[in-house]
Structures are given as structure tokens and as C-alpha cells.
Amino acid sequence: MTTVGAAIGAAAIAVGGIASADAQRSAGNKAADAQKASADAGIAQQNKQFEAIQALLKPYVDAGTGPNGSLQAQQTLLGFNGNDAQKQAIDALQNSAAFQAQLQQGTNSILQNASATGGLRGGNTQAALAQFSPQLLAQTINDQYAKLGGLTSLGQNAAAGVGNAGIATGNNITNLLQQQGAAQAGAYLNQGKQESNMYNAIGSAFGAYRGLGGKF
Questions:
Q1: What is the number of domains present in the chain?
Q2: Of 132, 137, 176, 215, which sits with the fewest C-beta atoms within 10 Å of its C-beta?
Q3: Would you say which domain of life the source belongs to (predicted)?
Q4: pLDDT per residue over 138-148, tens digit each?
């Protein structure tokens, strides 16, 4: 075979090998880009869902553990926020329509019972009247604290729900980031492999050129 023929044959081998390697590298890069885009979309969706959960649970978190929530109100009733704040909270309960209605109803009941038994002006009646208001106030405070406790528990559960959602979102995003890293690493490995194949193709072309009688 002539030198020209050998050169043409070798060139064909080289071009074919290089084109094949380049096509495989391009396909590998496209696959990596597609996987990265999919992971990016997954991360965006995870963040969107977590923000939605936060928004849904925020009213319950605020009601229970927010600055003006039930936990703060419980602490105020217990005196944790100072004597003045405690007194204001108790006065508010004592002056509430519900307390005043119960006080009036209870007082009337005591007086009616005393009138029916002829002891309207007796010492027992006066003692009962004197004791009723403080007892009713104490009961009202305890009832209010218990009701606030229900809201506090609701807020705590909502806060825990947000925390758990955050942990789950973090784990999911971590997995997606790992997939991104694996895709990028695979792209680099694919690129290195195809470059190696390209150089091997050039080497094979050189060998074919010599084998077909080519000379330098």
C-alpha cells in the first residue's frame, strides 16, 4: 500500500475514534446536566414545601409559644414576669364578664338559700359570702391556666412539627446534593475516559499507519 493510502486509512481510524470519544463525552455531560437539573428542581420543591409547612403551622406556634402566646400568659399568672404583670392578669380575670356573671349568680344563690332557711343575717351567710368570691377567683385562675396550657401544648406540637419537617427537608436536600455530586463526578470520570479513548484512537491510527506501510 502506498504511503498516501496508509495515511488515509490511519486518518480515517483517528477521525472515527476521536468522533466516537467526543460523542460519548457529550452524551455523558448531557446526562450529568439532566441529573443536576433534576436535583436542583427537587431541592427547590423541598424548600417550597417546608416554607408551606412553616406558614401553615405559624399561627399555632405563635399562639402557643409566641411573644404574646399562651406560654407567656401562663408565666404571667405564675408571677414569672413580675408582680405588676401578675396583678394585671388577675385583675383582668376578676373584672371579666364571665367572672362577674358567675360571682353574681353564686351570690344570689347563697342569699336565696339563706332567705329560705331564715338565716339571711346570720354569721354563716356572711362567712359564705366572704369566702365565695376568693374561692371563685382561685378557681377562675386555675381554669384559665389550664386553658392556656392547652394552647401551649398545641404550640409546642406545632413547633415540633416544624422542626421535624425541617429535619426531613434537610435530609432530602442532602440526598439530592449527593446525587448532584455523584452526577458531576460521573461527568468528570466520563470526560477523562473519553479523552483517554481519544488518545488511544490517535495511537491506534499511528499504529495502523505504520502497519499499512506508512513512513515518516
A1: 1
A2: 215
A3: Bacteria
A4: 999 999 999 99
